[in-house]
Known about the structure:
Elements: H1 14-33, E1 37-38, H2 43-55, E2 60-67, E3 81-82, E4 88-96, E5 99-108, E6 113-122
Amino acid sequence: MPRDPTRSYFAGTDRDRAAFEAGIKLGSILHQFLGVPLTARNAATVERAIEEAARVQPLVEDVRVKIDRKRLRVRGPYRYGILTEDLLRVEVTVGVGTARATATLRYVPKLDYPLMYLKDIRGPAGC
């Protein structure tokens, strides 16, 4: 991989940056795609579009998006809904140097909140 031209702007270790970047990716997905018109028929297309948009961002190694079709509320005479925070489940993995961070976004009913959290982080502690 070529040298990262932004490296000098970041304090901390590669692990720190991987965790930061994973959070940025989840936040961008959550806030960019809410409100997209949605039906059970186009949910898979929307999932793929979100994944492809995230994959072009720097440092992303993998991203998986699932839309909970059971929670989807279609209404009105035209029978469609919109993408809401309680429908999204996202897992993203980013790599920085030898560090890898996997983060998750999922709606937690008990909290009534779309929680973003670090699921796994690997790489030497000082990297």
